[in-house]
Amino acid sequence: MATKAKIAANEGRKALVARHAERRAELKKVIAHPSTDPDTRADAVRALAKLPRDGSATRVRNRDAADGRPRGHLRKFGLSRVRVRQMAHDGQLPGVRKSSW
Q: What is the pTM of this model?
């Protein structure tokens, strides 16, 4: 189980990403557009660099919704592989069965 501080820090990052998403998207659009003049592009790059690092979506860590485990996250369930296996064996995940062949 992850510490509460790690989980809280990740939640803070999610909030920061949501807050800066629109501004980051418009700056990246200006930077990537081929007809943007070099001065405008340089200004956009500087403005993007001034935004907080944790405002980038790649800084958010996918964590298990139940206990915050950071590794082995299965996006379909929002849980870690360990928790999915445990819940599937207990019959708590509808439609999920243990395979055998």
A: 0.83
